[in-house]
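May I ask for whichever protein you like with its backbone structure tokens?
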Amino acid sequence: LKARRPSVLLARPPSPALRNSSGRDRQIMPASPRLRGSKRPHMDRGRPPQRVELHRVIPQGVAAAAVVAADLAASGAPLDCGGLHQIIEGCYLDETTPDETLLQWHILNGFGAELPAADLQLMLAETAGVVTRPKHGKRNSYVALLEAAPRWFGGFMDQADSRAATEAVIPVEAWQMAAALLLQGDWPICEKIQHERFCITAWLQRHDGVLATISFGRVLHVVHCVISSKTMLGKREGRLVPYPLSEEFEKQENARNLRPTGLRGGEDWVASWDDFTHYLTCLLLESSGTLSPSSLKRLFRARFQLELSETALGHTSMTSLMGDARFADAFRRTVKPGLSDEISLRSAPESRA
């Protein structure tokens, strides 16, 4: 089911220019050789805003808001409150939640640099017909919404838990093609990690005809669901990669084969449960009788010149390791809500239910 979207973008409504404390206009100039690659957009504080009429058919497989930002930059007009309003309208066409991160991605792609966060918030506050709201579940983040949503608007489709998206019909072929492409990888490296999911969504729409026929927001919904599943995409050095290339997959494989993870050349590690039990007992006897789980790796390294790698003992995390029955045979883990957990020796073996 295709998203309902007009074939053309209406001209943006006239709106007052953003003014600084001195009363002069604050604007972002469009992309130019001196702007491209700069750390922040050039500010032209003396030029009045220009109204740019944009009447353009939105091609399939391209986000409407991206077209707006690119056309604004190409027109030679500065990005003012009216232009920002139109980018937000484009997000409604795309069925994507216009939060701060998405707006900055469109501004970066169109004008070559992000708008400083404080300036973006101030510009949104001065934009007629737009209100900002805190983003649910995100601290210090917000969404910029139109005061009156268009009559044709059916809801934002991009979030993994979006009710509108779960009730919408996304073709099975779209899920299948997205899965196949994501497992292959090969998407371009995104300049900023926080924009990565948008870059991947745009890449998917460019590389598959089925994905190009549905809205940017619905494809982004698929990407969010895939990320949440943690079975098709993982992370390597903070960036999204196909799951077989991820650090999570590497840990699972190492744990299955009892291999250490993340060691440098020449480093030794705790290679067996008997060694782990012996060394941890020594540390507890030398201490006050309790230790924090978070300090174990540091103490093993300092006291025994050994690396404590969970995967060498068959686990992918310290939490999983401490849940092992062999750990409970010799040690006690005390959970203290709001405080660091403690590990201590068992005074005597206890039966487990």
